[in-house]
Amino acid sequence: MNHENHDPNDDLFARLEADLNTDFSIGGEVVDLDKARTTRRPADDTPPAAGPVDTAPDEDDDPEESVYVDDPDTPAPTAVERRREPILPKWASNAEQFKAAARWAAGQAAYVTAFHAARSPLYAARLTARAPRGAARIVGGAGRWVADSQGAPMRAVAVRKEDAELYLRLTRQRDAKVRLRALIAVLAGAFGIAFVAVLLVMTPGWTHLALAAATVAALGWAGAPADAPLVTRAVVKTKAPRLTSDIVERALLALGIGGMGKGEITFPAPITRDGPGWRADVDLPHGVTAGDIMERRKRLASGLRRPLGCVWPEGNADEHEGRLVLWVGDKDLSKAEKIPWPLAQTGRHDLFKPVPFGRNPRGQWVAVPLVQHNVLFGSQPGQGKTSSVRVLAAGAALDPTAEMWTHELKGSGDLDPFEPISHRFVSGIDDDSIEYAADSLTLLRKEVMRRTGALKKLPRDLCPDKRVTREIADKRIGLHPLVCIVDECQNLFAHPKVGKQAGENAEFIIKIGRAFGVILILATQRPDKDSLPTGVSGNVSIRFCLRVAGQVENDMILGTSAYKNGIRATTFRPEVDAGLGYLAGATATPTVVKTAYLDTPVTEAVAARALAMRKAAGTLTGHALGEVPERSDPHATLLDDLEAVWPSGEARVWGETLTAALATLRPDTYAGWAPEQLAAALRPLGIEPGQIGRRIDGKTVNRRGYDRDHITTVIAERDRNRSA
Ligand SMILES: Nc1ncnc2c1ncn2[C@@H]1O[C@H](COP(=O)(O)OP(=O)(O)OP(=O)(O)O)[C@@H](O)[C@H]1O
């Protein structure tokens, strides 16, 4: 079956028909029935092929059409085992897909209309030229009808046989017919002439013209030679030819994967339009996986004779590892226009709902959930990493209950629009900026710890799942979403002084912060183990990888084995594919997404709206209010650290017990501290040690230590002063 020669006007209808027929065909069978039958029916003398068999009865009783069955005793699959096809085809049940299909059909119709409209003068000239011959044909035909020329051969036979009686009967019949027909012809002629005369007299001039044109057209139509149709067929020369099973099979076979031979590739569903492209569901031969095809995307594109940016193979693990969903777009995705963000002009966002992030190659929106998650972005420079961070930052900004801590450690000012709404903000590559970001992670770790206690204290009915919800966030008890962004985080984690501790803090926040509304968004252009701690890359829940150079970087961002499974951000092209990346963790399977693009003026406009919302809600804090940033120097955090490590249930604790616990909590800061150092650090805060006795091996041992009440009183006073 050669689909390429099909009338393009029939495409939509063929597709509709194919989609609707799916429900009635055997188990949602293939487009090319002949081919499918051949593959399912081995030659008479060959043993039954291994593999899936279709035991459903064929609608047609013709033995030639029957489906081969491995073992006739095998019971037919029950209805439950069969996969149900959706009642409505995808394009009809999804508003976006419906719009795409309608746009495509309207485009086709507009093209055909324009095509014929442009040729209408040619058609008019052809009709006029053919009109005399048409007139001659009509007059000649009428003459032959009146003269009953049909009967002439019969009369000739009577003459040849010299059958006088038959001849006389025939001529009598003919004379009667001719008289009647001549009368009819004269009357029709007279009425016709009278009708035309009335029309000429009683109707305006334009009707005469229309009448003349219609007459010429009718005569021209009648005068058309049998081998020269009037209209030229509107062959729609789209850049995207229709995808057929033959083309897909040829391209897959050309990959040269061992064990993939002709006739072994089957199509469990018809190839249909899906958004602005074609979708083919393919069952690969046994032992070949969708990943095997995905890792050969470039060669597949060559086999399909399509640009690389049009060819998007994916797996469908819901079915099985050998199910390939091949989507071939009409347009190269890299050449598509920048995607505007839906909330760019108006609207607010609830951060407990996913943030619209970008579109997949089929044009469907993909959103990224933030609450309960952390996000890691990675790519080579200039591939759109910062732009994608901006999309999520803008989503967080448009929720006035979200607290933003924004760090951009390149000094490019890409995130500057968010400064007026950020509780903490820094932009720079110098040591101060990096230490500021490191302080943020220290503070954030403490904030996570504070939140664990705060959430625990909430009544069970308010917090049944022990995690922050919108309802809890709205209570303004310090459990609102907190989004901490660190762009170019390699400059922080690879910093010789603060990097190691920052990495540990980030890992802690990622592991514990999720349930408490703390969201860490990290972006790096150097994904290696020195610049991205494995504790971070291994635990992050959502990953977005734009173009990277090699397998190691790919797997650092997308997770171990991603490359092996065909999830390869290495196939994106430098610069051309800016904004295009693999998103993992936000959707059921990793998917390609082109992110929405927010340029600086749009980002500033979004941030201005976000500022107005925060002012109205009274949620601006910290840097946004011009407050001096909180530093996490050891003396300032010591009190909180003591509270964090205090042995539960103990009212008084020895200094050496506390220094040991502090060193475990934060080795960079407290390792090697003796009780004397602790005493020296606490003295300026008004906390003096006292003697605490303990019974050890039956003897009382007295050492210097601290009273918990004393520590909590000083902390409460400090907090009161801060809020004042
Ligand atoms: N979603 C997108 N759609 C279209 N073009 C994009 C998109 N994202 C980025 N680009 C293009 O790529 C360019 C680089 O983007 P961006 O500055 O975000 O890259 P980057 O990876 O952060 O670079 P660097 O690592 O050097 O900071 C942009 O100026 C823009 O032209």
Helix/strand layout:
Layout: H1 11-22, H2 33-40, H3 90-93, H4 95-146, H5 152-160, H6 164-202, H7 205-222, H8 245-253, E1 272-273, E2 277-283, H9 290-294, H10 297-304, E3 311-315, E4 323-329, E5 355-359, E6 365-368, E7 375-378, H11 385-397, E8 403-408, E9 422-427, H12 431-457, H13 470-473, E10 482-487, H14 490-493, H15 499-512, E11 518-524, H16 534-537, E12 542-545, H17 551-558, E13 580-584, E14 591-595, H18 600-617, H19 634-645, E15 652-654, H20 655-665, H21 667-670, H22 675-682, E16 690-696, E17 699-707, H23 708-723
Parallel strand pairs: 7-11, 7-12, 8-9, 8-10, 10-11
Antiparallel strand pairs: 1-2, 2-4, 3-4, 5-6, 5-14, 12-13, 13-14, 15-17, 16-17
Helix pairs in contact: 4-7, 5-6, 8-10, 12-15, 19-23, 20-22
Adenosine-5'-triphosphate (ATP) is lined by residues 338, 379, 381-387, 525, 578-579, 594-595, 597.
Can you walk me through this structure?
This protein is α/β, with parallel strands linked by helices. The chain folds into four domains: 3-86, no CATH class; 103-222, no CATH class; 368-625, Rossmann fold (3-Layer(aba) Sandwich); 634-723, Arc Repressor Mutant, subunit A. The chain is 42% helix and 13% strand. The longest helix is centred in the first third of the chain and has 52 residues, at 95-146. The protein is elongated, with a radius of gyration of 40 Å. The structure holds adenosine-5'-triphosphate. The site of adenosine-5'-triphosphate has 15 residues, from helix 11 and strand 14.
